[in-house]
Amino acid sequence: MAGGDIVKVEQTAPHGHHDEHEYGHDDDGDDRVSGEAHVEILGTIEPSIVAARWSPNFQHLIITTGDDNVVFMSRSSDGSLHPIATTAMTAEDLNLSKHVSVGWGKKETQFQGKGAKAKTLRDPTIPEKVDAGTLSSHDDGRCTISWRGDGAYVAVNFFQPGLRRVIRVYNCEGVLESVSEPVDGLEAGMGWRPEGNLIAGIQRLADRIDVVFFERNGLRHGQFTLQLPSDAPDAADDLALEWNPDSSVLAVVMKDRVQLWTTGNYHWYLKQEILSGPYDSQSQSQEQNRLPLFTWDDEQPLLFAVSTAGRVLVNEYIHTISRGPTSPPYDQGAVAVIDGRTIKFTPFGTAMVPPPMAWSEFEVMSPAIDIAFANDGSAMAVLHQLGVSLYALELNGARSCCPRLLETALFDEDDSCTHTAASFQISFVTRSRTVQVLQMDAVPKLITYDFEASAQGDKAWRETLDVDVDLVAAIASPDSSCELDGPLTQDHRGRITIGAHESLARFPRYLPQTGFVTYDGELLAFGLSKAGHLYANSRLLAKQVTSFVVTNSHLIFTNAKHLCKFVHLAGAEDLVVPQDDIDEDERLRKIETGGKIVTAMPTKMSLILQMPRGNLETIYPRAMVLAGIRRLIEQMEYGAAFLNCRAQRVDMNILYDHRPEQFLVNVDLVLAQVKDPAHIDLFLSTLKNEDVTQTMYKDTTLPTTDNQLPEPTVVAKPGKINTICDAILQRLRAKKEVNNQNIITAHVCKSPPALDDALSVVAQLMQEDESLAERAVEHVCFLVDVNKLFDRALGMYDLDLTLLVAQQSQRDPREYLPFIQELHKMSVLDRQFAIDDKLSNWEKALDHLKVLDDFQVVQDYVVKHSLYQHALHIYRRQEQEHSILTGLYAAHLKSRSQFREAGLAYESLNNFAEATDCYLKAGVACWRECLFTAQQQSPPMQADKLDELASTLADALREAKDYAAAATIHMDHLHSVETAIQCLCKGYLFADALRLVSLHKRPDLLESGVDAGLAEAFSSSTEFLADCKAQLKAQVPRIAELRQKAREDPLAFYEGDTRYAGMDIPDDVSVAASSRMSTNASLFTRYTGKEGSVGTLGSNVSHATSKNRKREEKKRARGRKGTVYEEEYLVNSVRRLVERVESTQGEVERLVFGLVRRNMAERARAIDDLMEQVVEGCKVAVGEVWGKRDEGEGVAAGGLVEDERDVYKAGGGEGVFQESLEAARQKQEPPVVGTFKRLSLLGDKR
């Protein structure tokens, strides 16, 4: 290429990859040896090629030539190249770089306050120093090219002779878009971030080297300073920049090393520095001092390869967090961040310091590689290129101190980090101060250093021999919740071991991110793959996981759906992962898009998340909060549990409901820990008769069916509030002078509130200390409506207490002072009566009147307030007064139309005339009492009036179809045997009629009375049964016909249009009846509430009117033939028929028996056969109408109404139709049809 030639190199498949021939053939038929490279010159560009680069999709090639031209070429499908454009890079291009900066973010644009002097002000659009584009002393004149990730634009970093180095931005068609503004010391190194927002370049200044950023329009957009190696100052003489595919890492390539930089919260961190190979600073050979070749993998964003003359290094990294223990009591939230030689340490349990700041910053001897924390959080080990530095993490009470350096263990010469042997990971071995370091040379190697032994003089690194190091891929420190002695290692197959022990757990493959915890004595290993698959041992738990952390009680992870999930620890096969669509589940928490877990602190009940920009957020997930509160309650730390409930807005009923028996036994401890009277009041005021552990805070650790939480239901605990208040009151009364406020609150918070008890406490304090009484009444007025409290205090007849309460209210003294002064003038009984009468305590006021012994006033008061029952009770032992009050009560009952009870009252007073009148008005149910009192009157009633009364009652009973009672009156009181027999025959009581004929020796009535009654009953029963039979034959087949039509063509059936019956209508076309086409949508949208359910001319408002609904209800009630309501009407009609036939079976049986007794066997046999036919017909009808139907049969049958939760509730006339559909969908119980027993004397059925 140096000569300007464009060559194409092809290599055939090596030996062994061809199925038949060892030689391959090119397109021209030439034979070539297998595995041999074939070089073909496609063309020549004059005078030379300076730089060239393919676009990311390999569809475009850009070439810069020796005569300052840029050639754009595209590749066709056959691999040939075609020129698109040729653009000259001239000095005129720099005219595009006249940018104007308005000074955003500059000090000059910020508000300086009123004291800023005019002379200090300056134009922010004019920079303090204007770069002229001075050439760097290390500039070698190279031209570099970098494409944007989508291939739409390309940047060319070119030195314009005699002017400056400039970055030109072209589109893929070769059109110049922009040029960069002048920057002093700009060099050739350049890289366009694949996301497209920044172009990175190198600026070399006198005292530092910066990576500067440009926007696509050429303007500067920030920079950061490189951390240069102190041991190799010449390594940065030549630099190159390479972005990884997802734009998260910027690689800075130096002569002997590669630095990996990431950004967060507008700060750039040096995460890793990889030594790639030595260079000779004294050599003048360009071959020996050129930069190593570096490239990122196109698919794996953190996989790269770097090569030198002697070796190729392929590394892959992951984004991970160096965090301290996450299990109590060591969960201080310690997190360490690597920034080159600087370690940023923050204990989030002590302070929430936002990045890029930190609680403490310190430097190590060389660029850091990895950080490990002791499992008890007491130490932190930093692995760097020269060795390991151990820091003590100490506590000052509950707060963390700055890390204190204990010792630095330098590597031996054989173990030191070089380009041939690199250290990767570090872990603590046990709870002691022993660390292990995983190194990679030709083979993996584990070396160990004991800092405790070092204090005694043994400062040697030792190689670990009890581990199969050839298989070790990663090491990890066990958490404090792991009851393990030693470091955990993972091999390339995912096997987890400790030292030389057998495998403790196994992943399906190697997983780079791991977490470990011991559950029931067994190791529970969690691992996250690069693809986001989360495993528990070998079981796949979830996909699309972005981060996770393990505590002593939960596995916590985030996923790509922006959810944070909590999994209660259990066996690997018993872990239950909550579903995404459970709204009321404490195990789910929505988070900001892209948030990832930094660390968890169960003691603080908090979770630290980091957002994509880099900012931190502390959340208090409900699962962690409830788990922490439950743990505190079990440890009887009620004070801390209360404060957490208060801070996290958790219902304080959990303090009792979680351990009720424990709470009642330790009430003294609860009061001692909560301490503050205001806090005790807060707890008492939140009590309710409900078990919150079964409703809002249901324990999710219990197994559920299909991972679905049951619907929360209100679990009442009657008497819970009073139980707690009584238990607290019992302890508080011992020292009431200190807890008067809480005593009053406990009384008021009872259910119902014990206001009298609370006011009694205030009244007692008034006798002891007026100041305490005033504070107490002020408190009780705060808790209860002061008007209600005034009435209760007045009802206690304590006028001083009433006045004290009134003074706390907003009442006008002119309203209550005259009344209280008037009460002072009264006697005790008169005062009590006046108070109770004003408070509407009329029963108590009546008691006071009884004591005052003025019965006339008592009568008037009883009548005025209807206190008859209470008056009868208190005067039950005074016969005369009781009788007077009973008469008043009877008159009251009669005026309220309660005639039966009024008649009883008058009868008890021997007022039989009024009693007879009341019993008569009470109805036919009191005919016996009415006739009795009528005959008890004094003077007796006249005979004709008594007969008239009896006739009136008999007629009323006959109208009520109580024929037996009517016959009794006619027989016993009117002495009419003929009429009595007629009544009995009317009621199918033929046996009683024959008995009366025999009793009164009236054989003439057998034919005129009994036989005539039998004939009439036979005629009416035959007509009724025939009508029933005909109705069954007509209606049951019609119901079947309607259902068949609905099943075959529901659209035409329910819309009332038969034009489409039998036609194939597409599923996606809605056809409505012509009569409704202009105003309604189709059936399937009209009655399901989906979009488009409103017609073109109509509206929901016009249809959902009361008038339309009433009209539709009438149509539904009529059930006219041909309407959609016909089936419902017919089904109800058949039900009524069956129920009526069932109710007449007894009458027909008595009729048949009477006919046989009077020698009318043929008639008996006829009615018997007809009844049997009708009963059998009813049974068949019940089977056909209410029998089991097909799933698709009936109204809607699940087709019109999909899910009741999604059903649209229509209004107006459409609402009536929808109600009919829903009523038909509900399962209906069929009517009961009993078996009709034929009279055996009639013989078999003919």
From TrEMBL:
<comment type="pathway">
    <text>tRNA modification; 5-methoxycarbonylmethyl-2-thiouridine-tRNA biosynthesis.</text>
</comment>
<dbReference type="GO" id="GO:0033588">
    <property type="term" value="C:elongator holoenzyme complex"/>
</dbReference>
<dbReference type="GO" id="GO:0002926">
    <property type="term" value="P:tRNA wobble base 5-methoxycarbonylmethyl-2-thiouridinylation"/>
</dbReference>
<feature type="compositionally biased region" description="Basic and acidic residues">
    <location>
        <begin position="16"/>
        <end position="33"/>
    </location>
</feature>
<dbReference type="Pfam" id="PF23925">
    <property type="entry name" value="A-sol_ELP1"/>
</dbReference>
<feature type="region of interest" description="Disordered">
    <location>
        <begin position="11"/>
        <end position="33"/>
    </location>
</feature>
<protein>
    <recommendedName>
        <fullName>Elongator complex protein 1</fullName>
    </recommendedName>
</protein>
<feature type="domain" description="ELP1 three-helical bundle">
    <location>
        <begin position="1004"/>
        <end position="1178"/>
    </location>
</feature>
<dbReference type="Pfam" id="PF04762">
    <property type="entry name" value="Beta-prop_ELP1_1st"/>
</dbReference>
<feature type="domain" description="ELP1 first N-terminal beta-propeller">
    <location>
        <begin position="34"/>
        <end position="298"/>
    </location>
</feature>
<comment type="function">
    <text>Component of the elongator complex which is required for multiple tRNA modifications, including mcm5U (5-methoxycarbonylmethyl uridine), mcm5s2U (5-methoxycarbonylmethyl-2-thiouridine), and ncm5U (5-carbamoylmethyl uridine). The elongator complex catalyzes formation of carboxymethyluridine in the wobble base at position 34 in tRNAs.</text>
</comment>
<dbReference type="InterPro" id="IPR056166">
    <property type="entry name" value="TPR_ELP1"/>
</dbReference>
<dbReference type="InterPro" id="IPR056169">
    <property type="entry name" value="HB_ELP1"/>
</dbReference>
<comment type="similarity">
    <text>Belongs to the ELP1/IKA1 family.</text>
</comment>
<feature type="compositionally biased region" description="Polar residues">
    <location>
        <begin position="1096"/>
        <end position="1105"/>
    </location>
</feature>
<feature type="domain" description="ELP1 alpha-solenoid">
    <location>
        <begin position="622"/>
        <end position="823"/>
    </location>
</feature>
<feature type="region of interest" description="Disordered">
    <location>
        <begin position="1095"/>
        <end position="1119"/>
    </location>
</feature>
<dbReference type="InterPro" id="IPR056165">
    <property type="entry name" value="Beta-prop_ELP1_2nd"/>
</dbReference>
<dbReference type="InterPro" id="IPR006849">
    <property type="entry name" value="Elp1"/>
</dbReference>
<keyword id="KW-0539">Nucleus</keyword>
<feature type="domain" description="ELP1 TPR">
    <location>
        <begin position="832"/>
        <end position="995"/>
    </location>
</feature>
<dbReference type="InterPro" id="IPR056167">
    <property type="entry name" value="A-sol_ELP1"/>
</dbReference>
<keyword id="KW-0819">tRNA processing</keyword>
<dbReference type="GO" id="GO:0005829">
    <property type="term" value="C:cytosol"/>
</dbReference>
<dbReference type="InterPro" id="IPR056164">
    <property type="entry name" value="Beta-prop_ELP1_1st"/>
</dbReference>
<keyword id="KW-0963">Cytoplasm</keyword>
<feature type="domain" description="ELP1 N-terminal second beta-propeller">
    <location>
        <begin position="337"/>
        <end position="598"/>
    </location>
</feature>
<dbReference type="GO" id="GO:0000049">
    <property type="term" value="F:tRNA binding"/>
</dbReference>
<dbReference type="Pfam" id="PF23878">
    <property type="entry name" value="TPR_ELP1"/>
</dbReference>
<dbReference type="GO" id="GO:0005634">
    <property type="term" value="C:nucleus"/>
</dbReference>
<dbReference type="Pfam" id="PF23797">
    <property type="entry name" value="Beta-prop_ELP1_2nd"/>
</dbReference>
<dbReference type="Pfam" id="PF23936">
    <property type="entry name" value="HB_ELP1"/>
</dbReference>
